[in-house]
Amino acid sequence: MALSFWLMRVLLPFAAVMALHAQNLMPLPAGITPGQGQLQIDESFRVAFTGYREPRLDAAAGRLARLVAARTGLILSGAAQGSATLEVRCAGAGEKVQGIREDESYRLEVTPRGARLEAATPAGVLRGFATFAQLVELDAAGFRVPAVRVDDRPRFPWRGLTLDVSRHWMPMDVIRRTLDGMWAVKLNALHLHLSDDQGFRIESKRYPRLQGMGSGGYYFTQDQVREIVAYARDRGIRILPEFDMPGHTSSWFPGYPELAAGPGPHEVPRGFGVLDGCMDPTREETYRFLDGFIGEMATLFPDEYFHIGGDEVNGKWWNANPRIQEFKRAHGMKTNEDLQAYFTKRVQGIVAKHGKKMVGWDEIMHPDLPRGIVVHSWRGANSLAQAAADGFSAILSNGWYLDLMQHTDQHYLVDPLAGAAASLTPEQKSRILGGEACEWAELITAENVDARIWPRTAAIAERLWSPADVRDVDSMYRRLAVVSSELEWLGLEHASSFHLMVMRLAGTHDPAPLALLANVVEPVKEYQRHNSRKYTTTTPLNRLVDVARPESAVARDFAKLVDGYIASRTGAGEIRSRLTAWRANAARLAPVLRDSALLAEAAPLSQDLAALAAAGLQALTTLEAGNHAPAGWVDQQLALAKGAAQPRAELLLSVVPPVRKLIEAAR
């Protein structure tokens, strides 16, 4: 390699770096300089510390060693003799409670003689460990880490994931492995959506009927919350609690009906959507209750921020309540938005009283609120920019709603400082702290939650960590495939759950034909599933649509093959092989569909795939012969493709667009 490792200050363009090195880092570092040679990883692998040391660092070094052992299959000796493989120097302790301004920068240097990691704080060490773990690779000589220098720091201080544990319950093992995945891609905030209409998911000792009557028995005890907070801190991750109010609060009312703005009897609803249930913001008893509750929760969650939700209050209960209408008139309030602003300001005072800064969705934004709060934008770039322009801190989630089943590149190209934010002043831009991917739980369970979050969230993590000009989609997808595999070694189940759920659907049959179909379909996008049938918290989520991945890698790869063939007439053999397999799969899958009560709805999809593949094969044969297909045939096959593109069983056949290209090319 022509470049010397010792050109310390030279930062190569990312494209050049990726060409020179087979590195699969995600997020890409702020600065990276490749060197010469590799560092061997063998049974003697060991981490040693100089400078500041604390139990959190020792635990992190142990996790890194176990991860290296798992990924390599090596039996590490653990012996302390000889030089360490990775020497770590931490300058000093970080903040007692990790904050958004914690220094997460680090420098990692790897030579054939050893590796050295330097950081100002333990948080920086944790980020450097994640990078080192990704650098371990197998070559012809064994396991190695390429010689490299990484000078790295995050672009945004707030890089999070919102996980809804209310609508469908997510137990402790989901939380732990989610945190492990977040550590691997350098996310630093887990936002737990702990209450909504469908469930209240935390123990309150002061108000025990909240979980006693609002959870169905599924909630985190306070000891479990402390365990989650400690587990997250060990990985450099903050825990941000959200208790949505004044709307999305139906689960509060069975235990404490006096909080409700509408009449009882109250029960925890099973359906989804924007429901009518909301708190009564006119009663002083409401604020006394919230003072006690928020005070109790503030002692459980050490983070400086406290999320109060504030979204989607439809106001129907307020409109129907004569006493609330009289309160509005007496206080000069013309709209329900004015009433919610009154509520939000009162709650903000309570949150501040207990030493926290309030976070809330866009709807809380109001000129009367102190500028120390954080506006969490789900509505989009305009709302985010307006918050920053008005002096509020802000974070973005619009564009990163994972439950919309969008493709990774759509999420990847969303940027908090793009769109309306691009025209802000530097001072205003500094108020945009980062953002959070969001996984809402109407249509997920603990069984498939990993496959809905990962690996797409790794690409969002890169947007929030890496420099703004890291936007190469092809590079992202190539690295994402590697990182997806690495996440499985950490215990994530996004790949393994797919195979288990396919096996369940296939019953006693060979699951391979069903897996082939499942790999070329995707769930319908946005919220179309809710238009297809009525889902509730008791609806089993065990159909093919619940197995299918949000984005088909098979379809994406096939589309690239087709584009390459049309451009240069290369790759015909691989295209033919795939089309032939798809055409034959309908016959192979027929007995599986016949014997599974859950799969009958998938039969049209299987038939469409076979017919589409047959059309693609005929188009390919025509193209290879240098002929032109008759216009009538092309029109007929395009009509077939149009039909195959329609949703069936809440699924989309994702190979329709590239096969359509083949048909059109044959014209």
Explained architecture:
- This protein is α/β, with parallel strands linked by helices and 667 residues long.
- It folds into 4 domains: 14-152, Chitobiase/beta-hexosaminidase domain 2-like (Chitobiase, domain 2, 2-Layer Sandwich), CATH 3.30.379.10; 155-187 and 372-471, TIM Barrel; 204-235 and 245-370, Alpha-Beta Barrel (TIM Barrel), CATH 3.20.20.80; 497-665, no CATH class.
- It is 42% helix and 15% strand.
- Strands 8, 9, 10, 11, 12, 13, 14, 15 and 16 form a 9-stranded mixed sheet that branches. Strands 1, 2, 3, 4, 5, 6 and 7 form a 7-stranded mixed sheet that branches. Strands 17-18 form a two-stranded antiparallel ribbon.
- It is globular, with a radius of gyration of 27 Å.
- The two termini are 48 Å apart.
- Residues 1-22 have low confidence and may be disordered.
Q: Helix content range of the residues, please?
A: 40-55%
Number of strand elements = 18
Mean pLDDT: 95
The DSSP helix count reads: 25
Distance between the termini: 48 Å
Query: How large a portion of the residues is in β-strands, by DSSP E?
Result: 5-15%
Choose one word for the global shape.
globular
| Chain oligomer state | single chain
* Overall number of structural domains: 4
